[in-house]
Amino acid sequence: xxxxxxxxxxxxxxxxxxxxxxxxxxxxxxxxxxxxxxxxxxxxxxxxxxxxxxxxxxxxxxxxxxxxxxxxxxxxxxxxxxxxxxxxxxxxxxxxxxxxxxxxxxxxxxxxxxxxxxxxxxxxxxxxxxxxxxxxxxxxxxxxxxxxxxxxxxxxxxxxxxxxxxxxxxxxxxxxxxxxxxxxxxxxxxxxxxxxxxxxxxxxxxxxxxxxxxxxxxxxxxxxxxxxxxxxxxxxxxxxxxxxxxxxxxxxxxxxxxxxxxxxxxxxxxxxxxxxxxxxxxxxxxxxxxxxxxxxxxxxxxxxxxxxxxxxxxxxxxxxxxxxxxxxxxxxxxxxxxxxxxxxxxxxxxxxxxxxxxxxxxxxxxxxxxxxxxxxxxxxxxxxxxxxxxxxxxxxxxxxxxxxxxxxxxxxxxxxxxxxxxxxxxxxxxxxxxxxxxxxxxxxxxxxxxxxxxxxxxxxxxxxxxxxxxxxxxxxxxxxxxxxxxxxxxxxxxxxxxxxxxxxxxxxxxxxxxxxxxxxxxxxxxxxxxxxxxxxxxxxxxxxxxxxxxxxxxxxxxxxxxxxxxxxxxxxxxxxxxxxxxxxxxxxxxxxxxxxxxxxxxxxxxxxxxxxxxxxxxxxxxxxxxxxxxxxxxxxxxxxxxxxxxxxxxxxxxxxxxxxxxxxxxxxxxxxxxxxxxxxxxxxxxxxxxxxxxxxxxxxxxxxxxxxxxxxxxxxxxxxxxxxxxxxxxxxxxxxxxxxxxx
Length: 743
Hints:
Layout: H1 10-13, E1 24-34, E2 38-42, H2 51-64, E3 74-80, H3 95-100, E4 103-107, E5 111-116, H4 119-132, E6 134-136, E7 139-149, E8 155-161, H5 169-181, E9 186-190, H6 211-223, E10 227-233, H7 239-242, H8 265-280, E11 287-291, H9 308-315, H10 318-335, E12 339-342, E13 361-362, H11 371-376, E14 380-388, H12 415-425, E15 434-441, H13 453-464, H14 471-483, H15 490-506, E16 509-512, E17 518-521, E18 524-530, E19 533-536, H16 548-555, H17 557-583, H18 588-624, H19 629-661, E20 671-672, E21 675-676, H20 700-704, H21 707-724
């Protein structure tokens, strides 16, 4: 089908929010006042325990406080009848799956009729009806008219990254239920060591889902027509496995925990066993992700434990070596009825595609050279994009203007517009067989997944109806549905959250790190290893240099100017968040998470400006020290007080964030439940949460900064001046690494 140009949807222009936007809506003049009494009439094909019936009752109760009342009030008639709804044009060639998700919603003067071809379509019709209910003076209303709706792509998956943390079970269920509300029907869960692999007990982390809990989660998802899809990397991205001494023999290179030896039969058997563990705990599931993401060094190893180079030469290419590995792992999964989704990327070249099993689904599209060849080989594909990548604290939904950046960079249109455009208009739509879309939220930078929902919902909406609305309208529809009618200023909140996150990163520099150097990256193996970098701040040279404080102020004038402006924005952000925590009808915890992040932004701004104030005070103290030593000491004490304030503010923001995030997360700890977490950094990927065992990665850059050493030097200079003038010394301890002070 041809993707549509941006328009203002007819429903939105009438004041109704639906996400994703329905395919066809014929609206009449007027609206139906819904309730407060209402009833469900089950027609042909609708069982008493049908999930759509339960969802309708649950959501009207939870969102609006409305319970069904016998046969009175607004009547909602539900019916499932094969062939009753004829879908229109759709890109996806799987027309049977498209028809199963289609529905018709008819609103009359006193009755609402929902008709579908199958249970899934009826469920989606219910979700649209619930979304349509708009609060206005006098009650709830829905528009009069008819909606006929179906998806463009029958698979609309989101990727949930629990590699570095794990939600509590109720929170995982809430996330799945929330995804279903927006017609997302695949929940790809990357758990890594947060699943209790029976075949690999050594890698299981202190808090991990048991197979029984995983099955419980699978069954819960199926109730809402969501497929919980296990996600496991291989042969690369598996430091969480290969860091363990028990599994180190499976490495392709002895000194790198990043990649598995694809030619080691025991290694292949081992990783296949882990996939089988996931399948065994996922009965009823149809999908599994064999993530062949970034196997940078495949075919390069030639050592006593792994000779991939010779195997690749014998097979004819490194890509064929990857194909053979994928075949060995995927075939048993396929034989059990699983649709195996993988990434058909590097080191595959076009001539390698024919060596892949054609039953695989490629989770991404790769351009005009590759996509037609995948199609000719009989392989179906999905369009991949992401709501987050390497950003800290908040996704780049909106971009910080270049004029407000300390360093060059930035630009772009933001992730919502980019992702929606990708799914709606990617040229691959015309040159290969597209059956779905995948929207990822990566946790490599340690973000809270509550920050991903705007992207998850608005971008996957293009998999239902592509190109139908602007990013601004999609976001506005999300704000109303996600937070309810009581929310105000949400666009500004998201703009400020994104811009403040970018300034948090931009306001520091990059400097040498003492952490483990990298074995390699996408451009090859480093010899010697390449040092990583850590964020850092230039600290004043005072008291070592008499003019050090003044020089720091001059060198950092632009940094301080931008921080001052950002602090004013932070005032606005905190006020908006506090207001909406009180007024929003739904998802207030989401806003509490945002509050905790906004306070971390503020801690950084206050620290920068605090150092600036310290420098101003110390420079003034230097000028008065010769003749007015007591005044100089008072000024230096004032500077030390500011340092204490900086530490207390950091500790308060950090501990508030931990307390808030742990409401939905299980603790990140070294030991619990009889299991220990082995802390060993990835030899290739410098993921932020990997740097610490606990939540201190949120303030890791502050802890690595030698601010405490500088404050001690200021105190020592102060005490030398005091001793020279027979005045009392300052004995207060200043432990920069103390995270308890101030609580």
